[in-house]
Structure formats: structure tokens, C-alpha cells
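Notes from the 1:1 (GR / supervisor)

We went over the backlog. Supervisor wanted to see one worked example end to end before approving the batch request, so GR pasted a single chain during the call. The sequence is below; no edits were made to it. Supervisor asked that the structure be written out right there so they could see what the output format looks like.
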Amino acid sequence: MTRDPDDRLGTEIAALRRTLRSLRGEGGCPWDREQKLDDVIGYLIEESYELLRAEQSGIWREVEEELGDVLFIVVFIHELMLEKRKTDLAGVVAGAHRKIVRRHPHVFGSTEARTRAESLAEWERMKRAERRPRRAPALLDDVPDNLPPLRRAAAVQRKAAGVGFDWPDGTGILDKLEEEIAELRHELRRGKRDAAKSEIGDLFFTVVNLARRFGIDSESALERTTAKFTRRFNDVERRARRAGRDLSSMTLEEMEALWRESKTRRPAAAPRRRSKKPAGGR
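Structure output shown during the call:
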């Protein structure tokens, strides 16, 4: 007799929960024990991007592996929720199911939608109907919640600056930046992780504000620096391989020496393109 796949799914999730509780329990993994809800939700975003990259690679085995990582994080999140209050995962799934059915009245109800645009309109109509009466709109309500964090911070700051809530010049923000660094140093010395995390958030927010004040897009500036780091680190790895070494076997001082060499290496000049006249042209 063939086993019901749903039965196996429940068994595997239960086994995963037991493993997670061992990792979080007394004598478990120090890293897993210190994770908090917002930390693990952040990992869900990373794992979702890795799933997307795997799908784009076209390698199905990698897609399945990354999907497994996403599911693991979802169960991990639920375990952390259970530590705070009783949250029934079956109830969460049932609520999501009811919402999906409710937002498809053109499939499960009496309305009609013959095109993709009409089905999206039905979805939005039902979504609006579900919303509870809200308070009077606030200035920052117009900033979308789903923007990437750096871009949302800049958007919030622009809105506030639009009504005059802004620094007179960049000097004040630079002073604030130094103040936030001092506060972060203080919390790191105290060993208070949550407080340090809050101060790092303040530091990010201030840096974004500084970039905005000088007309610099913080997200593109960060992307440029990340790309530069990636190029240099890849060069460090290539240099190590040419020397018959693996990075994991090298000391920090040895890697730093290769890093300095990479920084001083001039990038190869781009080949000069020869202009070509189109066929039949003058």
C-alpha cells in the first residue's frame, strides 16, 4: 500500500521540529540558541533569493535543495513563535487557505474574470474589502512597506524633509554619525546584543540620511562598494590558488597581504573597439 505523501510530510516536519528543539535546548548549538525571531525572518529573505537563483540556473536538484532551506526557515520561525505564545501552524495554514479562496471569487464564487487583468482587479477588490477602518492618514503612510530597507529609509527621510524636518546642512548629520558610532561602541562593550542591534540600525539610518542630504543614492553606493569588494576578494582567491593555497588554510595576515596586492593592481584596460560601418553605409 502506497503511503500518503501528506502523512510523510507531517512526519518529516515533526522530526525537523525535534531537531530544532534539540538545537535550541540546553546543551544545543550556541548559534541556534541565540537566534531571535527577526534574525531568522531575515534569513528567510536570503534563502528566498537563493531559491530564485537556483530556479534561474535550471538545475532542478538545486531548486529542491533551496526550497528545503526555505521550508526549514519557515519551521524555525514557527518554533520561535511558539516560544513566545501558542501559535497553531495548522491554523496559520488554514487562515492562508481561506484568504486565497476568498480572494478568488471568480473561481470559487459567483463573479467572473476572463483575463489576467480582471482576475487581479478581483483580488484587489477583495483585499480592500478585508481592510479594517483605519485611523486618519499620516504623512509617512504613503511610503510602501515593501521597499528594500535602505530605499525605504531614504523615502521616509525625504517625506520628513519635505515638510521641513531636516538637518540645516550635512555637518549636523556627520556629528550625529559620530554620536551613533560612540553609542554603538558603548553597547558593544556592555555586551548587550539587542541594544547593539538597535544602535547599528540607528547608524544605518544616519548614513542613509547623510547620503540623501548630499544627493547620493545609498543603495547604488552600497552596490558599487559590494561589487568592488567582490572583485578584489575574487582576485585574492585567484592569487592564493596560483600559490597552491586555499583561503581557509591561510592566516588573516597572509590574506591581508594578498588583499593589499589586489588593491594596488591596476585593472586591465578595456580593449579599444574598432568602429564598423554598416553594410551598404557610407
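Supervisor's comment: The chain has three domains: 7-87, 139-216, 220-264.
Batch request approved.
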